[in-house]
Each structure stands twice: as C-alpha cells, then as structure tokens.
Design a protein that fits this description.
The complex is a heterotrimer of chains A (313), B (545) and C (434).
Chain A lengths: L1 E2 L9 H8 L2 H12 L8 H12 L4 H11 L3 H10 L11 E6 L2 H5 L2 H12 L4 E4 L5 E6 L11 E3 L2 E2 L2 E3 L2 E3 L8 H17 L40 E7 L5 E6 L6 E7 L6 E7 L4 E4 L6 E8 L2 E2 L6 E2 L3
Parallel strand pairs in A: 2-4
Antiparallel strand pairs in A: 2-5, 3-4, 5-6, 7-8, 9-10, 10-13, 11-12, 11-14, 14-15, 14-16
Chain B lengths: L16 E6 L2 E6 L4 H7 L23 E6 L2 E6 L10 E3 L5 H16 L15 H9 L22 E2 L5 E2 L4 E2 L4 E3 L9 H9 L6 E3 L6 E3 L13 H5 L5 E3 L12 E6 L8 E7 L2 E7 L12 H4 L13 E3 L2 E3 L1 H13 L4 E4 L6 H14 L3 E4 L22 H6 L6 H6 L6 E5 L3 H4 L1 H4 L7 E6 L4 H4 L3 E4 L8 E4 L4 E5 L13 H8 L7 H11 L8 H4 L4 E2 L6
Parallel strand pairs in B: 1-5, 18-19, 18-20, 20-21, 21-22
Antiparallel strand pairs in B: 1-2, 3-4, 3-5, 6-7, 8-9, 9-12, 10-11, 13-14, 14-15, 16-17, 16-22, 23-24, 24-25
Helix pairs in contact in B: 2-3, 7-14, 8-14, 8-15
Chain C lengths: L16 H6 L8 H4 L3 H11 L11 H6 L9 E7 L8 H8 L1 H15 L1 E8 L4 H16 L15 E6 L9 H8 L23 E5 H5 L1 H7 L1 H7 L7 E8 L5 E6 L2 E2 H6 L11 E5 L8 E2 H5 L2 E2 L1 H6 L8 E6 L4 H15 L5 H18 L7 H13 L6 H15 L1 H9 L20
Parallel strand pairs in C: 1-2, 1-4, 2-3, 5-11
Antiparallel strand pairs in C: 5-6, 7-10, 8-9, 8-11
Helix pairs in contact in C: 3-11, 5-7, 10-11, 15-16, 15-18, 16-17, 17-18, 18-19
Classes of the chains: A alpha+beta (313), B alpha+beta (545), C alpha/beta (434).
C-alpha cells in the first residue's frame, strides 16, 4: 500500500510571487488581459507566462494567474490540470517529447522510444535523468507527421542536428542515430550555456491597443458602416402564365427599401415601384425589351444598382 | 463555467398546455419547458444524474436519452435540453428499443469505473446510480479483472490498496462539514454549479480531463461555506457526504417527517428524518416558492440540538419534579395570579401563541400579553434565508400581539407572575432580561436547560419545534405546516398549547382547537384547514404588501 | 502543373512581408475588397463552393451567412489552428510557410462579417509557428495592414494569437471557444450555434487556417474559377498531409476529385508506396480506414469518399503497407482518444478508456473470445449518445479496423492461450471489495 505519485514539493507563496510580481512580468500580464473582453480569457496565456517565468507551474503560480484573471483559484487549477502542456512538476532542462500516435507508430516510433528509454535510463512516461538534464515523455500527434517519427525538444521540433542547431528538415525522420546526435547536442549545450534562454511562450511580442472596452484598451468598436451598402443581386424577371412579369432578386436582410427602376430603348432609368426590404418578389407588367434594375437602401444609404434584367418577349 | 449554462425553464402552475405525442399517444404538457419536466407532468420519470430543476442545465450525464423527431427522422436526444415543441413526437423507453439500449449503455459507462462501495457508502438507498441501474440498467456486468477499472482521484491522492490495485481519492477531508470520495464521483458537475451559481462562491471544480478528471477544491483549500452541505444533497452518488451523518444511519431506516426551518423567517421547507425515536438528520424539502432545494447549514444541523441538553421534566427552582406535577403547579400559579405577564414568542407556532391569547382572554384584566423579539432581523441572502432569526414573527403580528418586550421590562414590578414560552430571553439579552427578575414568580416553558430556565422559579419542559404539529407564517405571508416527529425524549412532554390549555381550563384536545382560535384572530386564515394548507403552504391574501 | 491556391508560395520565404508582397500578396487590400459590401462578399464566397477545410466540410459562405450583422454585439473571427487530428500537419506547414496569406484571408473574412477582434487559436505544441505568425503580424501592423482604420477605409481589425496548451478536443469549435474564453476546452451543447452565440455570447465565426488562406486567390481569380478547379459539389483544391509508407511524405495541394492513388503515386506528389499497400486512412485518424482495394477506387472529394463510407475530413492521408500491424495501429488510436476525451459526458469519458483497456488486454495476450464484440458494442453505444463527435471519432476506427482486418484481430485474441475461457468469471469481484 502506498501512494502512486511522488509528492511534488511546492514552493511557498512568497517564493513564487517574488518571481512573478516583477515589472516585466506584470507588464506582460496587463497586456494579455487587455486582449480580451473579459480578464478570465487571459487565463491560458497567463498560465503560460507564469510557467515560462518559473520553469514549471507550481500551485501558487496558478493562484497568481487566477488573481490576474479574476477567476477563482480552483477554476485556474482545474483548467491547468485539463491541459497537458502545463507542467505540474519540474522537468529536466531538455524535455524530450516523442510522438506515439498512429502515423509515427507505423514508422517505428516504439523502437525509438525504447531506444531513448534504454540510452537515457528513464521511463518514457515522464521520467527524468538523475542529472536533471532530460525528461522523456510519450506524447500524442505533434502535427508533423511528414517527418515521422517525430520528437520535440522543449518547444522545438527536432529530428536531427543540422549546422549545429536542432532542426526538422523536409524528409528527415528521427532515427536512433539522429536521436543520439540530438542528445549529444543537448549535453554539449548544457555544458556551454548555464540555462535555456526565456522564450515568449504566450504569444505576441508587440503591443496592440487591445480589445475595445478591456481595461487599459485604447481601441474603439467597429464602425457599422465601413463597407459599401449591400446592392441587390441576381435580379431577374420571368414571364408568368397570364402574361405578367414576376421580378425576383436577392437582397441583404438589413435592406430597408428597394427601388425598382425600368427603362426602354436605352433611355434613363425611371422609378417603377418602391418595395420594403422584406419583399421577395414583385409582379407587374412590362413591355418586351424593358430593362429593369433595382437599387437597395439600407440605413439611409443607397447601394450601387443591381444587374440589369431584361423582359423577354 | 465550461458551457453556456442556463437555468431550466420549469413549468408554471398556470402554464399553457400544448399537445405532443409520447410513445404513440397524444398528451397535453406545459409549454416552454424541457422534456424531463414535461414527461414528469404526465407521470413518466426519466432517469438522470446531472439535471436538477434548481441548477443550470449541463447535459453531461447523457442518461435522460429519449427519441424525438427531427429533420432526419427520429433520433436520440437528451430530454433535459430538449424544449417542448407543439406536435413533437417523443419516444421513451416504453416504446423505443433504441432509447432502452442507449440508457443501458450509459449506465454501463457510469458504472465502468465506479467503486463497489455500496456496503460502506452513506448514499446507498437514495443513490441515483442504484435507482437508475434498477430502472434502466443492464443488470449483467461485462467488466473483468484484467480489463480493470480506472478509479478517479487527484494524483496526490492516488494510492495502492491492499490488493495492489491503483485506487483514487477516498474519504478526503474537504473542510469543516463535507467529506469527498473522489472515486465515487460521476463528474455530473452539480456541486460545481451549486457552489458557483447558487452559493455564489466557486470552491469546487472538476480538474483534469477524460477519465482522469476528478472533483477538487484548490489544493490545500477547504470547502467552507454556510450552504456547503447542500452539495451532499445535489450529489447523486456518495462522493460528497456530510461529516455529521457519516456512518450514522442507513437511509432506508429513516422516516421523514415534514417540517419548517425553526431558525429563520423564510421558513425553508425541511424534513426531519428519524428512526427509533431519534432524529438523525434534516434534509431540505423542495419548495420552488420558498427555498427551492436549499437549506442553510445551521438549519440542517439543527436536529442535533433536539437530543442535547433537553429539559424533559419540570423544575421547582433547581429541583427536578415530574412533568405533570410541574404542569399542575403552573396551572395554580397562573389561575391564582394577581397580575400575570404572558410572553408570546415568534419561535412558537400559531397554535401555541393562540393558547397564550386564549389564556389571557380567560383571565381577563388579570393578564397581559407581551410579544415581539429582541433578535434583530438581518438581510436576506436570496438562497434560503430571510436573515430574520424569528420564524413566526409575522404570525405573531397577525395575531395582534405587539412588539413590546421592552415595555414589559419597564413595568416588570407590576406583575407577580411571569410566563415565558419559546424564548431564551436571558440568553438573547441578559441585561434587559434582568429587569424581569423583579417578578417574583417566573415560569419558563422551554425544551432545553437554557439560561432562562436557570433564572426561573418554575420550569416546565415542553416539546421542541420538530415534535409539534402546527403552523407558522413565514416572511412571505405563507402559512406553512410543521408536523410532529415521534422523537420525544420523554413521553410526558406536551406542546405549549396543551399545557396552557390545561392551565386555563380551555378544554382544547388537539392543535385544531388552537388553530381555530387563531383563525378567529386572523381573518386571512378563514376557510383553511391543515389539509388545504398542504405540504407547500399557502400564501395568505393581503398579508404582505 | 495543377493550379495552386494556397501553397503557391511554399519555399519562397513568403513569411517575410516584402517577399509576400513581391509574390502578389495583399493585392486584395484595395478596391477588389474594399468596394464590396459584406453581402456581396459573402455571396461571392458562397458561389466559390469553398467548404471548411478543417474536417467538417461545411460550406463557408453559408456559415458566414448565419452570422448576424448589425446586432450590436461584436462579431468575432476565431481561426482554428489547433491542428491535432492525427496525420494532419498541413496547417502547421501553411503557417510556417505563408503566414501573411492567412492574415490576408482573415482581413477578407473580417471585412465580410464586420470583425473587430480576431484570434488565431494555435495548438500549444506549435510554438515555432506561433513565433512566425507573431513576426508576420508585427510586420502587418507596421505596414498599416492591421489596426484601426486600415488604409483609410474606416475598417479596423486586431489579430491576436492565442496559444493552446495540449488538448486535441480544443479543435472542436465550441471547445475551442470555451478554451479561448478561459475555461476547460469542453464542447458546448448546441443550440445555440457559434454563429449566433459563440465567444463571449457573441456571434462568432470559427474557420480553419486553410479555408481562410484560400480567400485571397478566390478574390483575385473569381469564385467560378475556384469552383471549376474541383468537382461540382467539392469546388477548389485541397491541401493533403500525407504520411506513413509513402516515398515522399509531405503537404500537397491537389484539385478536389483527384484519385487517391494519384496523390500517393504521382511523381510530383508522394512518388509511390513503400512496400505493398495494405490500407489507407484517407482523412485523419477519425476517418474509417480503407483497404488497399478500396483505396484504389477512391477519389479525393467529400462526396466520393462519403460514398465509400469514409470521409475526406482534414485531408490527412496515412498509408501503411503489409508489414504493419493493424492491431497496434488501432491500439495507438484508442489510447489517443481515451487520453484526449474532455471528460464532460459519460459515454466518451468512461467508454473510450474502457475500449482502450480491452484492446490493451488483447495486445498483451490477455484477450478473450468475445472481446472484439464487446469493443464493437461499446463503440456503437458511445457513438450516438455524446455531446460532441470525439466518441464517434473513436468508434469509427474501432469499427472499421476490426471490420476490415478482422482475421488479424482474432489472431491477436487467440495469442492468449486462455482466450476461450469464459469471459465473465463467476468468482470475479471487480475492484477492491471492502
């Protein structure tokens, strides 16, 4: 009898908040909240921001993000547990994620995973090497099946090392040899670079004015009349059995009035009738050869005329 | 919330009816509501877990499947989210194999990862899984040991049991009142919706994903809210249970006696559940017009006082005497009083207060009735409390009893006998009550050994609120019934009205005599009987503006 | 050389604005777009026959026409870049190669619907694509192609990238909206539909990356030209992600209606099968698998594949040869769906894991006779009782792999020496008994 999961040591509130309540992070947090109509919607990017700053997502960081987004702590906790990429415990410096889904499976992912487990000596279900350099995790489809089997090292796709950098060149699949090369590259990097540089993981290194109405936003809502007024489309006139003319067309639902015009022998168009925007057809009498067009009106704006429909003999 | 939740549209009593076709026959159902309610209105029960008439609709359990007609013919749909549409065709399990199969399938899925805890689970006997299994389930299991179950629980609570199986979270201490068994949870989300949308404090959430999801508070935080025990009601299974009731009593032994919340003037409808002469718990009784399905924790736990510190006998000063002796002494003192102060109480029923008025009437100018309360009314919380701790305050007012306790304290010296029933005045306001010690003969009728009893010259034990049948008028102007549960600590205990009737030789033989007297004083009660008041109570005309 | 409508800039460095422009990019941003009313533009897109390229194939113009305009509520455009359907990687490449085409497509869609704020929901694993998108967005803002009052038209549009965090279910449009709003990515009950009440209870249009990227070409060349590239009911071209046992896996744009084998064997395309073909998954892992014989009869459009009782879906083609073990393939899929189930509704939450555990048992040589029927029955049961189609997406592989490759599955069951033992053990007590 006993617990199945090793308990994760959680840093204290002070330890976590002291890392997050710094001007650069707070400025980012404010900008994130500004992007959405309600602060709650900044929760996912806020959790990313906290994770990148601390390296993983301790419970107090979740509480911090909840506060910034005006949601209850348990909501933020539940959300963080829903998504697999939020790390609830620290990982090694190089987080190796190998796809085990069907396409990579077909091309031998299991062999590569087994190789990774045996060379690193850790489980592919989230094991970490004792030197904290590597964590190995089987993951689901990474959306790079053309290079399958595929691996990610932290946030980068890597099926080989090319010109001293991790890369996933076209047509290059992960093999055991390439895996070893990548691991060697990682070890080498760790020896030269004290830690991985921070990366903007929550999306957007530039500032926009924000969502109209959000706290601190400087933008205004969309003007309703930016586009031209909607014209009438597909005007057509059909002779009915009793010799009358049935006029049909398609008009936008926002149209308030429709002006039917006619002309004969190429003269000027003269008004024939004004219809409501809700009308769908009109019956009248026209001599053969009469040309018709319709001009719609919405909110006091007239649109360009419709196509010309000709009354057949 | 993770869904666009909306409250269900419940059928109103005067709702217009529309005709729909259910299982081949045309029926009339209330318009505008969902199919669970519509089918209920014609006597067809639909098995469900996550639907609750007083909570926003979630539609996640998928148990309430029916078939309805759509553009592509008949198809499965959940009844709780399907609105009634005039002329629609509905097929229940009574006429559709597809519906039967779907409901059976959902039951199999519900049970696939559920622990076999029935023998140790408090919910057994009132568990939706058990009930729906009996009515809609498959009855044979296809589960095998080598297929195995995936029990639910947070990573930090998962453990290996004595058989080496990985288990989830069991009997977790969630806070002062509630215990959580994460394994039993069927993730219906009712408790989450209750805490967020009714209690207004989101303290529970379903964390994680898929069959690894589990119910949780924020790690290290408690579930602590004055309405939190309602989650144990809404929980359809035994995942959330009350500490106060855990392992105390099997629910099939309990008999439910309907009554009214004694702690607040909203008069939330409740039941007192008892067995072998003892109250084991209080549960809410649904009344859409009063408290919906909710009761405050204090109301729920009020049953404990019924067996603590009871005054089951009489006291001459500090010496205990048998009740009949105390009652008869009370009668002597009352009939022989020069000037008697009778204190009515908004904590007692209309019947008890009617007896006080009748007694005063009998004694004529020798007796004066005082009433009201020194307890101030607070604000309603719009859940199940008005904020006024005096349940029958409005009843007292309707009986014409003035709010004049302070006048009594000023004029105490005028009286030689005081009778106080139903208030612990010396506890509520000891400095004000002290003035009453000027009255030489102080008689207290109480159910408990309280502070007033200790200041009394004669104490008479009486039945408590849950042990009497009677009526109270709540702050909405609704007259509601209390029924008597057979849980007397002593068979000699009588209700207040009965003791006073004997004292005044009124000759009343039941509460009905008292009620009739009250009817004489309250015109709005005219024509009502206990039966016509009914379990939901009745609004009295013109009583509340 | 077939006409390309979305992949024509591949390999040309078009993620840089000046390169994109030099290749004709952003030419819509002028009279061609700005002279159109919203009504005309929606009509134009409808006539092009463009259908949602994310998997559902819903006619795009019709979806746009459902979005109420002038309701007073803001209209949102949410781009579904949560490409998670196993086998699919076209949006990944599209965003890396030609992000400005996506931005141009979004401006066109935004113009049609009156969108003020648009969000590109990119799955969390695509950080390099997110970085590419953000660089492109910054260039677009700097060049005045986004922001307030674009090019003096009075139209304003802001685009934000919203990063997902690892949940396949967020590819479902209402789950995507919930995730965008800051909740768990759990699908919503419908109605209401997102077009009417979506993100923040406002009208919302959710479109796939590839769908939006087709718009600049449609605007430039006209709807009839686009329609004509494909079949009458499936107009235009489609980008296919091909992986598995082909000589040259990758992303290929071909006209709708192209025979499947041409895609797999074409010398400018996948250049042939590696080994002997056993089967093909034509439209992402959720689509019913085709045997080699069926694959040879398949054309790549919505109707033709539906007639073969499968689907075009996301256009993710996975070919596998006769050396591949289908039992293991199905096991990887049942594991996937059980892992990705959002957990909201009972049949999917418990059923996908249940089916997965049975198959795991078969793979581990603990299968029993009747296990296959059990799995098929579970699959049938969780197919029509759920809130969203994830459970059906699990059911189809189960039904079709077992249905079309049955002997291999029976062999796997028979690998357990005790496979004929009774399935329901009399003395079995499931779970710990108190």
């Amino acid at each position: 009898m006993g617990h199945c999961h090793a308990k994760v040591t959680q840093p204290t509130t002070d330890e976590v908040f002291s890392k997050l309540e710094v001007p650069s992070v707070l400025a980012r947090a404010e900008e994130l909240v500004r992007r959405y109509p309600v602060p709650r919607s900044a929760l996912l990017p806020m959790l990313w921001l906290a994770q990148e700053t601390i390296g993983w997502l301790p419970q107090e960081a979740i509480r911090w993000a909840a506060g910034k987004c005006d949601v209850s702590p348990v909501h933020a906790y539940g959300v963080s547990m829903f998504y697999t990429m939020y790390k609830k415990e620290p990982t090694g410096r190089f987080f190796l994620q190998i796809c085990q889904n069907v396409s990579c499976h077909v091309l031998g992912a299991e062999d590569i995973i087994a190789h990774a487990e045996s060379t690193l000596g850790i489980s592919s279900k989230g094991g970490t090497t004792s030197d904290d350099l590597f964590t190995l995790l089987r993951v689901e489809c990474l959306g790079a099946c053309g290079n399958g089997p595929v691996m990610q090292v932290n946030d980068d796709f890597a099926t080989d090392v090319v010109a001293g950098a991790l890369a996933m060149p076209a047509g290059v699949q992960l093999t055991k040899e390439r895996f070893d090369r990548i691991v060697a590259w990682c070890r080498d990097r760790a020896a030269k670079l004290p830690q991985e540089p921070l990366r903007d993981v929550s999306g957007g290194a530039f500032r926009t004015g924000g969502h109209p109405g959000a706290k601190g936003a400087t933008t205004s809502p969309q003007r309703p009349d930016y586009a031209p007024a909607p014209p009438v489309l597909a005007l057509s006139v059909q002779k009915t059995e009793d010799g009358k003319a049935k006029v049909t067309w398609r008009a936008d639902g926002a149209v308030t009035a429709l002006h039917l015009e006619a002309r004969r022998d190429g003269g000027a168009f003269a008004p024939v009738a004004t219809l409501s925007g809700k009308d769908k057809e009109w019956v009248g009498e026209f001599a053969a050869g009469t040309e018709l067009r319709m001009v719609s009106e919405s909110q006091g704006r007239r649109a360009k005329p419709s196509n010309i429909a000709k009354m057949e003999a | 919330m993770s869904n666009s939740y909306h409250m269900p549209v419940l059928p109103k009593p005067d709702a217009k009816k529309v005709t729909i076709n259910v299982d081949g026959r045309d029926v009339e159902v209330p318009e505008g509501t969902n199919l669970v309610e519509a089918l209920k209105s014609i006597g067809i029960a639909t098995p469900h877990f996550c639907y609750h008439p007083d909570l926003p609709v979630a539609g996640n359990c998928r148990q309430c499947m029916v078939e309805t007609d759509g553009p592509r013919g008949m198809g499965l749909a959940i009844a709780c989210y399907t609105p009634v549409r005039a002329g629609m065709k509905v097929a229940t399990d009574l006429s559709s194999e597809k519906v039967k199969t779907a409901r059976k399938a959902v039951m199999e899925f519900q049970l696939a990862n559920h622990p076999l805890d029935c023998p140790i689970c408090d919910k057994a006997g009132e568990c939706s899984l058990q009930d729906n299994y009996m009515s809609a389930g498959g009855h044979t299991s296809r589960m095998r040991e080598d297929i195995g179950k995936l029990y639910k629980g947070a990573p930090e609570h998962r453990h290996l049991d004595a058989k080496g199986q990985e288990r989830g979270g069991k009997h977790l201490d969630l806070g002062p009142n509630v215990v959580l068994d994460q394994e039993r949870c069927i993730l219906c989300d009712r408790c989450v919706r209750f805490m967020r949308d009714v209690a207004g404090s989101e303290q529970l959430y379903i964390a994680g994903r898929g069959d690894h999801a589990f119910l949780s508070t924020f790690p290290g935080s408690e579930l602590d809210h004055e309405y939190d025990l309602n989650v144990t009601d809404v929980c359809p299974v035994g995942a959330l249970t009350g500490k106060h009731f855990r392992f105390r009593q099997r629910v099939w032994n309990l008999v439910s006696t309907p009554s009214i919340d004694p702690t607040d003037s909203l008069g939330a409808n409740i039941t007192v559940d008892h067995h072998e002469g003892q109250a084991w718990r209080i549960m809410p009784r649904r009344n859409p017009e009063v408290n919906r399905s909710w009761i405050h924790n204090e109301t729920r736990l009020a049953y404990r006082k019924l067996s603590e510190n009871r005054l089951a006998a009489g006291l001459f000063g500090k010496s205990e005497v048998p009740l009949p002796q105390a009652a008869s002494r009370l009668g002597e003192l009352v009939r022989g009083a020069r000037k008697l102060a009778l204190v009515a109480s908004g904590h007692l029923t209309l019947e008890d207060n009617a007896a006080i008025l009748a007694l005063a009437q009998f004694l004529g100018s020798r007796a004066e009735v005082f009433g009201g309360s020194w307890l101030a009314a607070g604000k309603p919380d719009n859940i199940a409390r008005s904020g006024d701790p005096v349940p029958n305050r409005l009843g007292l007012k309707l009986l014409g009893i003035a709010d004049n306790l302070d006048e009594l304290t000023r004029r105490a010296k005028e009286f030689d006998v005081l009778v106080v029933a139903g208030h612990d005045l010396w506890k509520i306001a000891p400095s004000r009550a002290k003035a009453l010690e000027a009255i030489p003969e102080r008689i207290v009728l109480s159910s408990w050994h309280d502070d007033s009893v200790s200041k009394a010259t004669l104490s008479v034990g009486v039945r408590a609120w849950a042990e009497v049948r009677g009526t109270m008028v709540n702050c909405q102007g609704r007259v509601q019934m209390l029924q008597a549960a057979p849980i007397l600590p002593s068979p000699d205990l009588e209700p207040v009205w009965q003791i006073l009737s004997s004292a005044g030789r009124l000759g009343w033989t039941s509460e009905l005599d008292a009620f009739r007297f009250a009817q004489g004083r309250i015109p709005a009660l005219a024509g009502l009987t206990y039966r016509t008041i009914g379990p939901m109570g009745r609004i009295l005309e013109g009583v509340v503006a | 050389m077939a006409t390309l409508t979305v992949t024509q800039n591949f390999g040309k460095g078009a993620s840089d604005l000046s390169v994109y422009r030099s290749l004709g990019g952003y030419s819509s941003l002028g009279p061609r777009l700005f002279d159109l009313s919203q009504f005309e533009l929606i009509d134009l897109v409808t006539r092009s026959g463009l259908r949602g390229r994310g998997g559902a194939g819903f006619p795009t113009g019709m979806k746009w026409s459902f979005v109420p305009r002038g309701s007073g509520k803001p209209v949102y455009l949410v781009v579904n870049a949560d490409e998670g359907e196993p086998g699919t990687f076209k949006d990944h490449v599209l965003m890396l190669e030609d992000p400005h085409r996506l931005i141009e497509g979004m401006i066109i869609c935004g113009w049609a619907l009156g969108v003020r704020s648009a969000y590109i929901y990119v799955r969390g694993e695509f950080l390099p694509a997110i970085e590419t998108l953000n660089r492109a967005l910054k260039q677009a803002y700097d060049a005045g192609l986004l922001g307030e009052n674009i090019q003096g038209t009075g139209y304003s549009l802001d685009i934000y990238v919203h990063r997902g965090a690892g949940a396949y279910i967020c590819g479902e449009e209402t789950a995507l909206i919930n995730s965008l709003e800051g909740y768990k990515g759990q699908p919503r009950l419908k109605p209401p539909f997102p077009a009417v009440s979506g993100a923040w209870a406002s009208p919302t249009c959710v479109n796939n990356v590839e769908t939006l990227m087709a718009l600049p070409w449609i605007l430039e060349n006209g709807p009839a030209a686009y329609q004509a590239l494909g079949t009458p009911k499936s107009g235009g071209t489609k980008v296919f992600s091909v992986s598995g046992d082909v000589k040259r896996p990758g992303v290929y744009e071909v006209p709708m209606g192209t025979p499947l084998m041409e895609l797999l064997e074409g010398k400018d395309l996948c250049q042939g099968i590696v080994g002997e073909l056993k089967g093909v998954i034509p439209g992402g892992s959720s689509s019913p698998v085709l045997t080699a014989e069926e694959a040879r009869k398949a054309n790549l459009d919505y109707e033709a594949l539906a007639a073969l009782k499968t689907m075009l879906g996301s256009g993710a083609v996975i070919a596998f040869n006769t050396t591949r073990d289908v039992v293991g393939m199905l096991a990887s899929l049942t594991r996937f769906y059980a892992h990705e189930s959002c957990g909201q509704c009972t049949p999917c939450r418990e059923g996908t894991g249940y089916a997965d555990r049975i198959l795991k048992g078969v793979v581990a040589r603990k299968g029993r006779d009747g296990d296959l029927e059990h799995m098929l029955d579970l699959a049938a049961n969780f197919s029509n009782t759920t809130i969203c189609p994830l459970a059906s997406a699990d059911a189809w592989p189960i039904e079709n792999f077992i249905g079309k490759f049955r002997p291999e599955f029976e062999k796997a069951v028979a690998a357990n020496p005790g496979h004929a033992a009774p399935r329901l053990d009399d003395d079995f007590r499931p779970g710990a008994f108190w």
